[in-house]
Give the backbone structure.
Amino acid sequence: MDTFVQLTLNGLTLGSVYALIALGYSLVYGILKLLNFAHGDVFMVGSFIGFGVLQLLGGATDPVLPLWPLLIVITVSAMAGCAVLGVVIERFAYRPLRDAPRIAPLISALGVSFFLAYSMQVLFGAEQRDYDAFSLDNGKLFLSGFDIGNVRVPLLRIVIIVAAFLLMIVLWLLVTRTRTGKAMKATSYDREAAAMMGIDIDRVIVVAFVLGSALAGAAGVLFALRAPTFPAIGFLAGLKGFTAAVIGGIGSVPGAMAGGLILGFAEAYTQGYISTKWSDLLVFVILIGFMIFRPQGLFGRPDIKKV
Amino acid sequence: MKRRLAVLAALSTLVVAALASTAGTGTAATDASQAVSCSKRLKVAMITPVTGGGGFIGQEQVTWAKFAVKNLAKKTYGLNVQLVVGDTPVEKGPGEALVVAQKFIADQSVVAIIGPATSGGVASASQALAAAGLAHISPSATRTSLTKGSKLEATKFFFRVVPGDYIQGPTDANYMVDKLKADKVVLVDFQEPYSVGLADAAEAVLKRKGVSTTRLSTSVNTTDFSSLVTRVPSDADVVFFPTQQPADAQTFGTQMREQGKRAVMFGGDGANSPSAFKIPGSYVSNFAPDISGIPTSRALIAGWQKDNPSLKLGSFGPPSYLAVQVALNAIKRACTAGKGQIKDRKDVFRNVKRIRVNPSILGGTFRFSTKSNDPLNAKFYIFQIQSDGSYKLVS
Amino acid sequence: MSGFDHDDRHQQGSPSEPQPGARKASEAEAPTSPAVGRDEWVARHGERRARRGGVLGTLEERLAVVPWWVWLTLFVAAACTVPLFSESGYVRRVAFDTVVFMLLALGLNVVVGWGGLLDLGYVAFFGIGAYAYALLASDKYDIHVPTIALIPLVALIGGIAGWLVGLPSRRLTGDYLAIVTLFFFQVFLTATNNGDDVFGRNLTNGPNGILDVDVFSFFGWSLPRVTSTGQFSVRYLYVALAIFGLVYVALRLLNDSRTGRAWRSLREDALAAEVMGMPVNTLKLMAFAFGASVAALTGSVAAALNGSVFPQNFEFPLLITVYTMVILGGAGSQVGVVLGAIIVSVLLEVLREPGDARGLFYLVILLALVGVFRPSLRLAIVLGGTAVLGFVAHLVAGRVDDAWTAGVAEDSGRIAGWVSDWVIVPTQLAGWVPAVSYVTLIALALGLTLVEGWRRVALLIPTLYLAAFVWENVLLDAPESTRYVVLGGLLVAMMIARPQGLLGEKRVEIV
């Protein structure tokens, strides 16, 4: 029982990070029908921005700010940095290709992903960077918290889960309740019709990139608070987020959240109960099965071809 | 369409120019029969991952090798030596070592190789290097089967200045059983050659001694270990964690504390980094005692630190210094014997085995064993991490 | 050049609304009176060709008379003479690797260029081929299948694997296929990496790979992979070239066949093709299987030469590299992808060596400038301005502190001496300088695409100097990462500036 609770907690923590990444994929896909392969690398850049800001503020052992303001400053700067990055990527790598054959922006995205990952490696080296969050307030983030049975729910996990869900709720409100959100929805149904209705398509797309990339930046920091980051992690994180988005139905916002959590749980339970060695393989095989039998995902609409 | 032709013309010019430049450097250097004069610039080539996931290993090794050349070549051995580096990112697989090796084989001014850094690289490149008569001295390839066993994976031209897993695995396992009185040990490997080899070596000894073992395995790119930690039984005594990334060991340790596991962490030489792995009460093994306690080595560390102010001392660097020292020494002897020239790269190889280094940067006298090309009397040292994060030698 | 691939020009659908990238071409070819009942594009084909005048046009027409197989023979023959020019085992090895890349590019071209499918698992088939060869010709299971039988067998295995992976594409289109193949790629990597313990049995030796793979041997003649001096054995280059020739011809004939035409129509508009009664799924599967089969065949050559196979040989960067080759050369054109493979492969090798990489960098910049501005006043201003800016900056920096300009080592190449008088290369960089200068350079370069006319010229001067600074101080320090930065940048730039690649034909998607 304790094992189950602990694994569920692991899955929830990891899953909420995956969900944040998946949201970025889904937002962009919903509007542009573009698999933004560079999204994982935006996540990676976000975790590095967080690392850099933390070092500027004195590092984990001797920070100039108290714990909570410090965490907020790190997260917000990573989100802002990533939002700018997302806009730049969209403006220079995707916008010129908006009317090109579908394969063109995909390849451009692969190029951007590669460029970002190896640029970071040129500048900062390949080694792992550890936030050393354990040193903040003498391990308070890891050791204090509340208990479920014999399982301790540490503060940091609460922070990650709560922050992730807060961000998702804010996004949900933005997408469903604001004019911009409605414009996004209209654009995702039919871009040309939306443009004819007077919706500024460019602006909508930029907003999607800003939101998606900011979430990736937040995810980068939340992830790196628990585990080290390195330039090559972008590809893996991207793969996970992308998988989550696909499970949920790519293009669907609630789908991305659900997909992230499902993926997190799937990983935690297979590692915990079946095999640590084969968990990646199991997850991918399940996914391929998913793709074959329900390609539109859990929440996605089946792709109806219009002629 | 004109444009297309123009582009084509420009590109062919480029390709021809590029080919010419590579071809030029190639031919100039490969007059196969020619002896190399020791008064000219000689090259020592290093084969190691400088970029990619294992890039930190090579980067550390290269800074130390550069420092060794700068410190020793002119002053001690009177040689004009340039260090050249061939990168073998772990992502491209061990086969890349062969590609890089063939590049160096073609360059007659390369007279000795430092590396390949990884055991897989040694296995894939050793035959070609041997055919070229090039001694290759690795500062970090520790797989047992390279030098021992019925089917050797490396040739006799391969040397290593650090002992292999056949010492480290048993040393660590014995310490767990004898000193830590462990009954239940969890071993984690990262699905890459270094950690699989070391975990296998330790597991074999533990099983023989009747310890109950659990083997966990995860991808080398994983950095969140929470579900692996959950798999660690609450009554496990030791977690053996042969990673090459000290930050991983730190993360695993933190996550064990988070989940209230009481098992003690035990890392191999790859986890040895006081700046990154600092979970109090954990153990780390290393092929060298604490070299900052040896006066001669301390001076060398200070010299290296001056050239690389932003870097921290790790465990891959000092053996690279030693490997370069052995190579330079052998080159010098070959030059002396050949009256100012190296007629054949094999002359360098023949001298390697005879080298003694005293004092070695790793402490004591260094020499090769007569039976295999491993260091003589090498042993592994075990450190315990103190509550202030410092490493204390315990065995 | 055109003799090789002029048939590819028929691969066009009719132009619909002009695309931003294609605007120039469409304007020039604005239809005067649309003819009913025939393909506008094909009908006007001869007209467009005739318009190409001048010496080049005549030359091209003359060249086009020579059939493609003559060009192919000439090319292979020329490649066979590479060893005559260079004794160096290294150059020969690079030539061999280039041929391997050419084969991979040809195979990927079938899937991406002809089939129009985005296959992100392509490298896995290369791996399957290499593993199949290694398992069936090594001491691992003590099986030693004769080479002459094994090579076709491996190609067949690859083809079947491609067929199986392609099967889901019956239900999947476009992006979803990319996803499935990407997952398949991961499954392949995980499986080979963990193959040392499948329910306690060691199938693939896991991360330690399979060593002692057999060399090629034909009718009792075995081909050792290294010469007696440890050099690369040039015979593998000839074997690879022979295989390349065969594969090229086979694919060329395939493309000229009914299947090839069907692929083209499928790629241009799958829906229309389906309506016309084409077996769309079977065609897709065939493209997949043929591509996979070529990749697997290539895998066996690589495994035999290297003598070992490791899971890490088949990672993501290789996939991107092959994609860059196909995209750069021009997806759809066989000549194009071969040219792309040669360029990228040589580029990657040159970038390995800082001295050569430096030379290449300045050469490319110079050529690009000449290409953009042609010999003109602007070109003179840009070149002169950059040079002057450099010398002034260098002089000022040198006056302030000697250490700022003392960084270039004396032995790092021919151009190094000249560079050290011009670019500021400090002995030690402050920690923030690389990141700031690099990001500024990217910002400036991106900014260049936004401004026009004299402003662009003015902005170009500092950009060029900063580029030289970053190249010397940051990128040349990490040549391996730089190689991939260049590839990534190249992919994006190609897609935007010339999506059809060097020799491909512009594609117009019917919306």
Remarks:
- The first strand of chain B starts at residue 36 and ends at 37.
- Chain B has eleven helices and 16 strands.
- Residues 1-5, 18-33 of chain B have pLDDT under 50 and may be disordered.
- Chain B has two domains: 36-163+293-364, 166-286+381-393.
